[in-house]
Amino acid sequence: MTPTRSGSFHLFKFRGIAVYVHWSWFFVAFYSISTRVNHYTSPLWSALEYVSLFIVVLMHEFGHALACRQVGGLADQIVLWPLGGVAYVDPPERPGATLWSIAAGPLVNVVLLPFAWLLYAWMHAIGGAQLYPNLTSFTYALFMINLSLLIFNLLPIYPLDGGQILRSLLWYFLGSARSLLAVAVIGFIGGLGLLGLAVWIRSPWIGIMTLFLLANCWRGFREAQVLRKLELLPRRSNWQCSVCQSAPLEGRYWLCHTCLHVFDVFAGQGVCPHCNSVLSLVTCPECRQARDLLLWRLPRREVKAAPPVIEG
To answer: Is the same domain home to 133 and 244?
Structure first.
């Protein structure tokens, strides 16, 4: 449901993050620019406004990607398409890391918003509406672009930023699976309301966007069910991940890189029972971080002090 590199053109790479634009973007750009001509005296201003919209979107997506890298996650690709942009980020499976990776996108718009407003206010103060009508309209459009993107992205509808921020906050109290389940249900309700708004104001673009959001809510709901089943599986309480502090699964879930047999890495201290090879790195199924088995530690337990020995 989201755009990929397939059918996309490579634009540039910045700090190791490759930026692509999907082929459908050009067709929608032509339609959008041609329908905005009446707002300017020249179609060039309409084209500049549309390109500026996606420059702001691109800065928003770079906010996600750079923040994700800051917390140790993976982020190396951004794809622009008619419905906006998608930053393919994979933060560590921790609520704090996910929260920062998602919140950094809207924060870019928060920073840009006052600058856009001051620019428009300055143009209005010098009488730009009469002297430079196209430029004044363009500065107002920049302000509205940032404001609209900020408000829309903060709606608590999964997988919008607002929905993912809400999921990250609930994660602290409900856990990974139930927090995702909660925002998926909230997203369904909000998405149906947004769909009703699209029908009421007869907006095909809001309708298309809403259908996309509802499809992703359903995908999030199914993913939450899988995560919930994963949480209920038996675990080894005498081991603990040094990153996320979760207990590992009990059973054969780790692949031996030598003989390709699946075995329980904690049953034999990392030694494969088929070929006696030692698995050097053990990946946590929760946070997906690979660590040496020696870095997995026992949960802390209270140690009672021994009674004093009285020698007679």
So the answer is: no
